[in-house]
């Protein structure tokens, strides 16, 4: 008999009503790919919460195993870059959306989607970083390419208690930036300052409709919120500054004007983590290894088991999860 494993499966009936449950699968039930990975750790990201709850049309193939990232060990491979026993990471590439994702004991994927787990990093630690942390590093890299340095001035981070925000604060602080953290949970002040935030502001300062241009408050920003928050960030960015945008927790609209762009030379930098080329992924993970304080990973994350994924997916959309959630798939 072939080995079996548990998987979370979201399905939809003829009336497009979504349901979610746990099924028992074998490798033969998985989608096509040239590498089979034994999944050791994964995460619960905001996008995973949307997929499981159905609150946004994340899933584009039915039925679907959610989970946009994982770390694990190659079990079998027909790809020239990988052999059994290799430690690997996957982020994005449509997993959990169009290709069966991480919430299963095993995953069969294209070898081109994988990168090597950085030496000295465990699967658990990699997923404490996860897609959220990898996205945060992509934002930092984009700001650096734009010429943003600590000497230029403060950097604002929105959604700062979430996965992207928490890791972004930690990285920026270690690099010497003055970080202004925007949060709707003022009770998290000690947590955010522990990560390295120098100032805390209430998200209400940014989340309501604002003026086309405001007082110049920061040299740059990392935004995972979108909508009015992103518009206000742009309106309050210093001359020649930049905002790296990677999320839409408030909304996918952008109610702004051209004023920040044509009067202050502000740049809006779009960050995509799903289809980023392999070289950029490898650069981001190499920088994570050196620029994310390993001692802070514990405070950034909590660990759950497979059976807690669905409950946590609902909690993350309700704003009840801070930092990162690691799923121990071997526990």
Which descriptors would you attach to this protein?
331 residues, alpha/beta, Quinone Oxidoreductase, Chain A, domain 1, Rossmann fold, seven-stranded mixed β-sheet, six-stranded parallel β-sheet, globular
Describe this structure in words.
By secondary structure, this protein is α/β, with parallel strands linked by helices. It folds into two domains: 5-117 and 297-328, Quinone Oxidoreductase, Chain A, domain 1 (Alpha-Beta Complex), CATH 3.90.180.10; 130-270, 3-Layer(aba) Sandwich (Rossmann fold), CATH 3.40.50. It contains ten helices and 15 strands. Strands 3, 4, 5, 6, 7, 14 and 15 form a seven-stranded mixed β-sheet that branches. A six-stranded parallel β-sheet has the order 10-9-8-11-12-13, with helices on both faces. A two-stranded antiparallel sheet has the order 1-2. Helix 3 (163-174) links the parallel strand 8 (155-157) and strand 9 (179-183). The radius of gyration is 20 Å and the shape is globular. The mean pLDDT is 95.
Question: How many structural domains can be distinguished in the coordinates?
Answer: 2
Rounded to an integer, what's the Rg over CA atoms? 20 Å
**In what range is the share of β-strand residues?**
25-35%
Helicity range: 25-40%
In short:
The protein has 331 residues and is α/β, with parallel strands linked by helices.
How is this fold's topology laid out?
Layout: E1 5-12, E2 18-25, E3 35-43, H1 46-53, E4 69-77, E5 87-91, E6 106-109, E7 114-116, H2 123-145, E8 155-157, H3 163-174, E9 179-183, H4 189-195, E10 199-202, H5 204-207, E11 218-223, H6 227-235, E12 237-245, H7 259-264, E13 267-270, H8 278-291, H9 297-300, E14 301-305, H10 309-317, E15 324-328
Parallel strand pairs: 8-9, 8-11, 9-10, 11-12, 12-13, 14-15
Antiparallel strand pairs: 1-2, 3-4, 3-6, 3-15, 4-5, 5-7
Helix pairs in contact: 1-10, 2-3, 2-8
